[in-house]
Design goal:
By secondary structure, this protein is α+β, with helices and mostly antiparallel strands. The chain has helices at about 15-20, 60-80, 120-130; strands at about 25-30, 35, 45-50, 85, 100-105. Helix content is about 25%, strand content about 20%. Strands 1-2-3-5-4 form a five-stranded antiparallel sheet, covered by helices on one side. Strand 1 and strand 2 form a beta hairpin. About 25% of the residues are buried.
Length: about 130
């Protein structure tokens, strides 16, 4: 374990899933990661690949990040070539859960999905344009 690996925060939903304290639709399991269907995915096939070890983000522990992205890439290879493989580092970069995870988002031509898709982005765009929700 890296000296920089952070302890899990008091309420980490992904740690709770790993411990069996929170429900999840598990799509694949590995010794070092778990693939789940996210609640409210952005499109059919949207998958999260989560590190079994609590690491806050992709730059905190490069070894854990490498293991987790390898699992995400293995899973994504089964889906096909048209997809986004995305992680974020920090809330200003749209990270909403402080536990390393990769989004696999299958894409199709003209699917209408614009990135980023998070509520923070929508709120910033609305604030800049003066729109109200």
């Amino acid at each position: 374990m890296s000296a920089t690996t952070s302890p899990p925060p008091p309420a980490c939903v992904f740690c709770d899933i790993m411990a069996g304290r929170s429900p999840a639709t598990v799509l694949r399991e590995w010794p070092d990661a778990l693939a789940i269907k996210p609640r409210g995915g952005v499109n059919p096939g949207h998958t999260l690949v989560i590190s079994r070890r609590h690491v806050a983000n992709a730059i905190e522990d490069p070894d854990v990040t490498a293991d987790t992205v390898r699992r995400a890439a293995q899973y994504a290879a089964e889906i096909g070539a048209n997809l986004n493989l995305i992680t974020s580092v920090g809330p200003d970069a749209t990270q909403t859960v402080a536990h390393l995870h990769w989004h696999i988002v299958p894409r199709a031509k003209a699917d209408g999905l614009q990135l980023p898709w998070t509520p923070q982005h929508s709120a910033r765009t609305a604030a800049r344009t003066g729109a109200t929700s």
